[in-house]
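Task card 7
Instruction: Convert sequence to structure tokens.
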Amino acid sequence: MKLTNGFLARFLSNSSPVFSSRCNRTAMALFSLTAAISLPLSTAAHDEPAYTGVIVDVRHIAEIDRSPAPVIYGPAPSTEEVYPDPTCVPTPDEVQEQSVVRYYRTQEDAERGVAGNHPFVVKAEAVVGPAHDSVRLSATDAEQLKTLDKTLHFTRTWKVAFLIPEGR
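Output:
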């Protein structure tokens, strides 16, 4: 089987970083806690919005395909992976059971789902990769996502949704 998805290939290969059970326990505990009490993840500074997750809008790009483990890249020509967090790689079982993103057709559905009621919303600039499952963000959006994640940690709890076009 040829692996076309960079993220899947990396964690299924012998050279992949080992998924830390400590990272897994921490991420799952945080995810369970925020899901159980339905509160947004808080930020360190009071003037920052308390985002509850991330929505990547890909509805304007018909070529997007679903995948259990897509990658969000920074701006071209960089190959920097903004998501998922390379230090917190899910196991193959976790990817199969939960996926690192959830797919929705409307923002309202995504907000009722994994993104929560106050998501950080970005628009994908392009679909990339041979499997047409990964996206590229603008430099501004990629930087904002990385900055917010330092305090919110939603990329470690996989609170990321893709809005996709009808029929995908």
